[in-house]
Design brief:
The structure is a single chain. By secondary structure, the protein is α+β, with helices and mostly antiparallel strands. Helix content is 42%, strand content 18%. Strands 1-3-2 form a three-stranded antiparallel beta sheet. A hairpin with a 5-residue loop joins strand 2 and strand 3. The chain is globular and about 35 Å long. 14% of the residues are buried.
């Protein structure tokens, strides 16, 4: 069963997001956009665009359970 558990790159991102409420995109670098898109599509993280156009991410309750 693939896709149920995060791979190493995705797990690294999830662990970084566990440290705080919202994490700016630049603090997740060198995260690849594909890894972020996968986490978003699975509902493990959510993204918010700030007024200045910057992106920030937050781990969801589902992401914390993975």
């Amino acid at each position: 069963m693939t896709g149920i558990y995060p791979n190493m790159r995705q797990r690294d991102i999830l662990q970084k997001l566990l440290r705080g409420d919202r994490t700016p995109h630049r603090q997740l670098l060198p995260a690849r956009n594909m890894a972020l898109e996968t986490l978003l599509s699975k509902g493990w993280i959510e993204c918010r665009t700030a007024e200045n156009g910057g992106l920030s991410y937050r781990i969801t309750d589902l992401g914390e359970q993975v």
